[in-house]
Amino acid sequence: MDMRLAYQAACVGQFNVVAFGRLAAAISVVRSALEQSQTKTPFAIDTLDAAIETLLAMRRKGDETGVWEITESELPVVLSGIDMAEQCIGTLDVALLAQTADRLLQGICGEQSV
């Protein structure tokens, strides 16, 4: 749900660092969980990697300018990532998703405290 809300906010010019963070976190959790479960979904990881790469570029721009936005050319890549993440969530174990989210959050918090 957070992924679609963040995407819609971006489409109407109301994207911000919080919406960006939720979108990036959700896609990253699904991508990592798929890798752990050795997904059989064709192109899932490639599609999510493309979305993550686009989100990383958006983060660099947002960090530099303070403006958080998705450009017209970035919208389809991000939307494809959201679609793929939503498609794959149903194939993943809920416990795996929770463990993956916890592990990624700990990694982020650990990096920030260094």
What does this entry look like structurally?
The termini are far apart. It contains 5 helices and no strands. It has helices at residues 2-11, 17-36, 44-65, 75-89, 94-113. The mean pLDDT is 89. Helix content is 76%, strand content 0%. Helix 1 (2-11) crosses helix 2, helix 2 (17-36) packs antiparallel against helix 3 (44-65) and helix 2 (17-36) packs across helix 5 (94-113). The protein has one domain. With 114 residues, the chain is mainly α. It is globular.
The count of β-strands is 0
The percent range for helix content is over 70%
Radius of gyration: 14 Å
> How many domain units?
1
- Biggest sheet record: none
Give the helices and strands as they follow along the chain: HHHHH
Strand content: under 5%
Task: Indicate the structural class.
Answer: mainly alpha
Mean pLDDT: 89
Shape verdict = globular
Regions with little confidence, pLDDT below 50 for 5+ residues:
none
Distance between the termini: 32 Å
How many helices? 5
Which key phrases capture this entry?
single chain; 114 residues; mainly alpha; 76% helix; globular
Brief sketch in words of this structure:
76% of the residues lie in helices and 0% in strands.
Q: What secondary-structure arrangement, pairings included, does this model have?
A:
Elements: H1 2-11, H2 17-36, H3 44-65, H4 75-89, H5 94-113
Helix pairs in contact: 1-2, 1-4, 2-3, 2-4, 2-5, 3-4
